[in-house]
Amino acid sequence: xIHAFFFLVIALFPIYIFGSxxxxxxxxxxxxxxxxxxGTLYKxxxxxxxxxxxxxxxxxxxxxxxxxxxIAYAAILNDARVLLFAAFAILNLVYLYSIVLYLNIxxxxxxxxxxxxxxxxxxxxxxxxxxxVSSSEYRRTSFFNNPxxxxxxxxxxxxxLGVLAQFAKVRFTKAFFxxxxxxxxxxxxxxxxxxxxxxxxxxxxxxxxxxxxxxxLIASLVILVGGLFVGRQLAETDSVKKGVVRLGSVGRDxxxxxxxxxxxxxxxxxxxxxxxxxxxxxxxxKTQGEIHSTFGTVIFSYGILGTLFFxxxxxxxxxxxxxxxxxxxxxxxxxxxTHHGLRFSYFWLLAGLFLVVGPGLxxxxxxxxxxxxxxxxxLASRTHAVAPGLY
Length: 391
Description:
This protein is an all-alpha fold and 391 residues long. The chain has one domain (2-17, 32-244, 259-390). The chain has 15 helices and no strands. The chain is globular, with a radius of gyration of 21 Å.
């Protein structure tokens, strides 16, 4: 039952029924997954090794800082709406822990389940576009509420598929991966998110260098065959043409400047850099709206403590597999230079996945962690070591 629950949690993520900032279908399924599998997940928590617990604690401490800062500013500004940002942080903390605990106890079958779930999520978003589902005609959204969500989802899904493809024990893994990457690239393109298009190109380059030549040939064959069926149709759509034009405008649009992305606030209001300004209540600043940057938001909104715990979390992931960390997180960080990405639950799916399977991630030419030789064996043993009736 646990596998079915987590398949739905991941696969239904792209379907947004309510407005941004509200709970969606996948969140309800996650709550049900935790309730119905609480004993199993608790057993998995007790089995977590010290290193994973240490990395997870940094995220826990970061969320404590976020909640404390947001509560303080809710009182100072007399505005309860800023508490929504604390709720986001708590939700994603639960999301991260749930993914780690599920993978820790589910073994190879959990990896297979997540692989197909992410592929299903990408297929749902792609199918939505083919069916004409979008809240905007210029920048496409599929089932999401805005195009940046679609672009960021495409980037995170492609990276997650790349990690899972190295561990999944299913037939035609590379064909599924190549198909998923192709769909993700199209999703990023029609979203017209410049950050997503640039980042996913970097992602595709990295994963292309990691696979053996025969695997690259298989992936190329899948892309070629798919292109024969739908390539010309997609290439001639207005969205693709707009994407090419938008990429050509990188660096020339007003919103490409550091000032328009909100970085100027770090210099204009340095008094907030110690304890943080919190999120929300943007009327306090010259430039309205949030800082469009992951690091910028953490530094300005949550001060020294928030930045410390976030950096410790990233360093903990880096130590899992330095070369793998670069391949997996660098494209995401590039996107994060112009967008705040920590509220998006798929980021924490990727982080949790890397924390569990990262030691065994094979990076061509890179140094692997001392645990990497046992990573596949560890995942396989989990399938038979605990709760045999579950599988």
